[in-house]
Every structure is written in structure tokens, then in C-alpha cells.
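Hey,

The postdoc asked me to send both predictions to you directly instead of through the lab channel. I've kept everything plain text so nothing gets mangled by the mail client. Protein one:
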Amino acid sequence: MWEKLRVVWQIPELRKKILLTLGLLAVYRLGFQIPLPIVDPNKVETFSRAGGMADILKQVAVFSASQLDQVTIFGLGIMPYISASIIFQLLGSVYPPLEALQKEGEAGRKKINEYTRYATVFICIIQSWIYVKSIVPNLAYDSFVVDPTAPTRTLMFSWTIVAVLTMTAGTVFLMWIGEQIDEFGIGNGISLLIMAGILSAMPGAGMQLLKQSSLELTGGDGQLGIEQLIILALMFVAVIFGVVFITMGQRQIPMQSAKHVRGRRVMGGTRQYLPLKVNQAGVMPIIFASSLLMLPAIVFGGLGKLFDANGAWGMTFDGIAQLFGGRGFVYAVTNIALIFFFCFFWTAITFNPKDVADNLKNYGSFIPGYRPGKRTADYLEKVMFRITYVGAGFLALVAIVPSMISGSLNVTPLVANFYGGTSLLIAVSVAFDLVQKIDSHLVMRNYKGLLES
């Protein structure tokens, strides 16, 4: 392995790409240390440790490369850009003008990217305004600012405008960093930003796990024993193994190309395979499901605060918020159902069996035993429907691993989220994509890949 890493650094072009990527990721992490104007980082740190809303914001941060529990210039992360990209991708399948742009090749892709940037700015302004108005000044102005003197209405409004523009500019800058990594660096820029946010939180989760552990066999006083740490380690390895297995898993459809004669030569007739990924949807179903499940917890939690906490309505709203904000049976069942729904929904958008069948027909290829055209499309749809069950089941299992860990082993949700489940799935998937990008550079120069023996 050290020899392969030495070969990677010996290639000047690849070395420049890696150093540029690392430098941009360092700038990304540096921005999370810069608070908004007049905000006291020490007071915000106290709020982030208080639990409640801060715990929900930490869960949101897993999927958005953000740090909403810390009032910084990059507080929104890259989630507005991801939301805008998903919106335009969904519209591309139902809105004819966007569908026509998608079929125009590079020119259409650039136009859609331009629209996505405009939508990102619009979403940033809305989200940052809601965040600033609901989390920072209205919650407790003197709990966040450096000078807790009574603010005037004009000062509050001016600070809100400055905070909204600052957070919007921060997200646009992160979007630019992601595009620069795509063009001049190595790997997918947005995915690497999300992965960097996850990895940066893992050491803190590890330290929290160590504080909660003891060297005794059975633990005690709320601490984890040696046997529980071994179970956590085995589950950690099992989740990584499962992620790698499902991510690389394919259903290979046998495919035959038709023979044709050109001059005196007979061409074609070769037997190939059409690979269909088992997990065609990736991590998007988990992100969608988790985001939707956070909305009831936030909305009903806010309604509970509006009413009397000891009143009937306040207790009812708080109870509903706890059902969706906790790790109980209702949360797990709803999460699994949403993951299955979004897995099939996202697969239906990203994989069109009719287009695949038409492309096979145009290139003179066919699946043995199935007539080109509609029969081939129906067969591909049936196969994809079956293997999607496997991918959705795996994603559902990965999503409830944190609930199993925190519920049975009394581990805090922060530790469970980062050492089993969605965070691990995202980190391993992005790492695999990065290794494949590096391997492509090595293979072009007749070197062995990083994963080749």
C-alpha cells in the first residue's frame, strides 16, 4: 500500500489535484471557525450542548455538510445547493422544457447548472432568514451576542440582514469550492464536502464514547463495559462490510450484439453484460426520509412551546414531537416505510428502462430471449424492481442501526449516528468513489489501481 501511495505522489498531475482538493477542504473547515458578527462562540457552544433543538440540528448537519448548532458563516453548509439540484432533477422528468435541456448535452447541462445556482441563492435567503429569526435573536439575544445590552429594533433588523447575507454568501462560496474540486481537483466536490463534515465530527463522537466507557467487564453507573465496546466494534466492521458489498453489488444482464458484415469482415456477435446496480438510489432515500422525519419534531416541538407546557395542547404536541424526534417504534417504522418509498421513487427517476432498451436497439444489441423494444424494457423494469427491494432493505437496516445501538447499549445518539448508520454509509460510499477516480488516473498511466493486488 505504501508503494502505491508513493506512485500516486510521483504523478505530477494527480499530486496537484490531490493537494488542491486538500487545500479547498481545509478552507471549508476553516470557515466553520468564523462566527457571524457580534456572536459569542463560547455562548453558542453552551447552547449546542444543551440538547433539545441542538440535537436535531446536529442530525441535520450529517446530511448537509453544515453546522447549524454553531452560528458561523458556513452554518447552512451545502444543503441549499443539494436541494436546488434535487428540485431541478425531479423537474427534468416532469417539465418538458427542462427535459429538452437535459437532452442537449453539455450546453443544456451548463444552462441547468446556471438555473441551479440562482435557485440556490433563493433557497439560501429563505433558509438563513428562518434560521436567524427562529434560532438566534428571538430565542435569547443576550445568550449569543458578545455585548448583551438591550438591542433596539433597528439594530436587530440590521444584524438580521447582515447575518442572512453572510450565510448566503458562505453557502455560495461552498458551492464554488465544490465546483472547483470537480473541475480541477479529484473526486466529487459536493460529496467530499459532506464527507469532510462527517469525518470532522467523528473524533468528538469517539471522545464521547471513551468518556462513556470503562475497563470493567460489565460496566456500571451508565458506562459501557468491554463486551459492549466489542459489540460496537463488530457492528462498525459489519456496517462497513455491508456498505462495500451493496455499493459494489451488480446484477449483470447477459447481452448479445448482432452480427453484421462489412466487406469481407464479420463484426459484432460478442457477448457482454449490462450491469444494474443493486443500490441504484445511493444514499438519497435515507437523506429524504430523515429530513422529512425531522420536520414533525421541529414543527410540533415549536407548537408545544407556543402553548402552555403543562396544558393539554402543549403536552400533546410535545408527545408527538418526541415520537418523531426520538428513536422509538413509530420513528423506526415510519423511517423504514419512507426509505422504501423514496428508494423506488428515486430509482424510477434515475433509471429509465425504455431509454436503455432503445439504446440497446440502436446499437444493435439485444438481451437473449427478449424481443428488442417493449419486451426488453419490461424485462429490465422487472429486474430493477426486484433488486431495488434488496437495496431498499439494506438502506433501511443501515438507517435503524443507530436506533438499535442507542436503545440496547445506552449509547448517546451522537455516537450511534457517527459510528453506525447513515454517516458511515455516506463516508464509505464517497471514499469508494474517490478511490475509483484515483484508479482511473493510475490505469491511464499503466499503473495498478489502489485496490488491485
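Protein two:
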Amino acid sequence: MVSETELLSSIPTQLWIGGPVDATGGATFPVHDPATGEVIAQVADATPEDAMRALDAAAAVQAEWAATPARQRGEILRAVFEAITARAEEFALLMTLEMGKALPESRNEVRYGAEFFRWFSEEAVRVHGRYQPAPGGVGRILVHKQPVGPCLAITPWNFPLAMGTRKIGPALAAGCTMIVKPAGETPLTMLLLAQLCSAAGLPDGVLSVITTSRSGAVTAPLLNDPRLRKLTFTGSTPVGKKLVEQSAHGLLRTSMELGGNAPFVVFDDADLDAAVQGAVLAKLRNGGEACTAANRFHVQNSVRQEFTDKLVAAMAEYRLGNGVDPDTTLGPLINENQLDTVSDLVDDAVAAGAQVKLGGKAPGGAGWFYPATVLTEVPAHARILREEVFGPVAPIVGFDTEAEGLAAANNTEFGLVAYVYTRSLDRALRVAEGLETGMVGVNRGVISDPAAPFGGVKESGFGREGGYEGIEEYLDTKYIALP
């Protein structure tokens, strides 16, 4: 495996607009290792002028890329998939260095993230419309799909590769050009991906990466330019709302994958060992820093104590440490602000009467670490049941009847994903249909799949990524009336 120093020295740190270019004015900003707090790279700090350079490049090649045969577009995506797979260890190490997650988690993300390029390389040739006689007998109806045009993707820090590939993959497959603005905390992975795309034959200008410490100022002129036709964002609900407002001026196509508050519901007929195994996956995958992470555990009271004991034992096995350490199974949080947020939510719950069964305090010292934590007797008014914790904390509350459990699960303005554990097929279907979420995991703690539509309802956003539905977000429907 390549050393950390060798890897970091090989990663592009300039903007990527038809290749590596300096930011206007030459400014840079630091990227930190969450395990140590140390600076590991200085990356180009884009200006609004740089954003417009990227849009100029995207607009200049949009027609050519849209006219490129779908098979050719798909083969380029497939080549990038192969390149990511060949350099999987480098991507994994890079993500661990800039995001903090344990290496096994990073390796899983590389496999998951690369798969979006393979999936959409196959979907590129399956875009189709329809042809039919008009019902009234006069003329014919031809429905044609075509790319929406230049797109802007704004991606978060928690999955530095996958949150980009599940937007870039369908956009490029559909024939759209794209500008990616990655999170300032984790820009290096996306810059490496852009380099691989170029090496795989992607024409200059089709994909640009603009890194910046001033996201709002840099993206604002893009959202106000009529050449941009699509905005896709993954991040917090408040930021998503602001972006929807900004994009309304140009009536942009938008897709928003926003915050979550996922309930994990365990009924008294569940296989408790399987439920605990699923709970650990749903809670501690990515260190809890995932919008799909189980945020609150609703457990039927007759099995609540047994479930709690088993969950505490399972989560106690996780070893907190630097993500590059082979013994580490739980890495640090992304930054000091996130550490403060998690600590505040736990402290608020404890002050309100919650009991700490595991963890509950940051160890202090270098890095932004927080241990696996289990809370019980959490009162209904505690903030941790209403706000997305984005950390390795599992608050447990009880319920008596199925109706109470379903009502508690739905008692949130968010609606991304929910998890249900039961042996009853009737109950599983009944509860899954009653849950106000875009996705439901039944007896499964991990549900993300590039072949499935990912997205939420209510304040968790709109639009879908992945699956057959994912490419539709980047296609316009044109009706052609024929005689």
C-alpha cells in the first residue's frame, strides 16, 4: 500500500476545470485530519470567477457531450469504475485521512461509490421514450428524453466519493455536463476522481471540480446563470431550503437529499439478535455520520431491556481510534463543531433524565473523537429525539402497541428512512406502508444500493438517486406531435 505521504503528494490540489488550474488570485484553504487536527493539504480556494470558468467550460461542450453516443458515454463510465476499483486502497486511505472513518468503512464506501459508475454505465444505453397512436385517432405521440443540460452538484463531507458518484454517474450517462462543489472538509477524494475521469477519456469540460471555503458566494452566480439547468444537493435541510429559494429565480430542476431522523422500530416478535446486529449497522456505519443512520430506537417495552443489554454489549466492542490504525473500528467525528454538537445533544438528554448505559463523554486530547454511546429512559422532549445527531449515539425509548410505535416513528418533520424489525410479514408490510419515509428497511440495517431509488419525503427532500429512477433526474421529457 502507498504511504500516506506519497498518496497526499500525488493528489491534485488545484481546481479541476479541463485539468488542474489555480484559483483566481491563488488562494488556498487547509484540509485537516480529523484524527489529529493537523493540516494534511492546502487546496485551491475558488472564487465566483472560477465558478463561471467552470460553467463556461460545461456550456461549451454540452451539445457535443449530449450528442456522444450513449454506448461511448457508458464505456467511459465503466472505465472509471475499473480505475476506481484498481486504486481502491488509495481511495480508502485518502478518505480516511480527510474524513476520519475507519479504513474498513472507507473500503466499503469505495465499493459502493464505484458501483454507481458501473450501474449508470449500463443505464446510459437504456434511456428511452415512447411512440403511440393518439387516442383520438388523429396523429401520433412521440415522447423523447434528452439531457437537461449543465448541472451543479453540491456534495457533503460524510461520503466523499459516493455522494459524488451517485450524482456524476447519472448526469454523465444522461448526456449532461456537471460541475461538482465538494465539501471543504473533504475535497481531495473528488479531485482524485476528476483526475481518473480525465484519464479514462472524459472530454475536458464535461466534469469540473471547484473547491472552496466560501460555498455560498461561489455557487450564487452559477444559480443565477440561465445556462445552468439543474441543481442537485446533499446536505442539511436548512441549506437545502436556501438553495431551493435561490434556484427558483431560474426555475432550475432540483433534487434535494436532505436531513434525516431515522426511527429504528423493534417489535416484540422480532429476532432480537438480528435486530441488534442490524441496529449496530444502522447506527455505527460511517461512525453514525450518515443521513441514513438510525437516530432513535423505538423498542416495544416487553423486549426493551433485553434489546438494550444486547445493544450495549455489541456497541461496547467498537474500538475508538485513528482510522488508519488496523485495530480501529470507530474513527473520529469530522471536526470540532460536530464533536460539540454530539456532546451537547447527549448532555441535554442526560440533563433531562436520560441514563447513560455506554460511553457518553468525549475522551479529550488530539482529534475529534466520541465513543459509541447508548442512552435509555430518554424523555420525549429531549433534543436528541428531534434533531439529527450525526454521531455514534443510540437513544432508546419504549412503546406498548403497534399504533404507538408507528406514531412515535412518524413524529418528526423528516422522512428519509426508517427501519423495522418483526417476524410478521403482515406487520412488516402494514408498518412499512404507514411509515412517512421515502425508504424502509425491513429486518435490514443497511439499505443503500446503487440499483435502488434513494431519497426522502417531507423535510428530507425530493428526487431520487440510484436505480432506474436516478437517471430521470437528469432528463427532460419532450413531446413531439406527429401527423
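Summary for protein two, as requested: The mean pLDDT is 97.

Thanks,
C.
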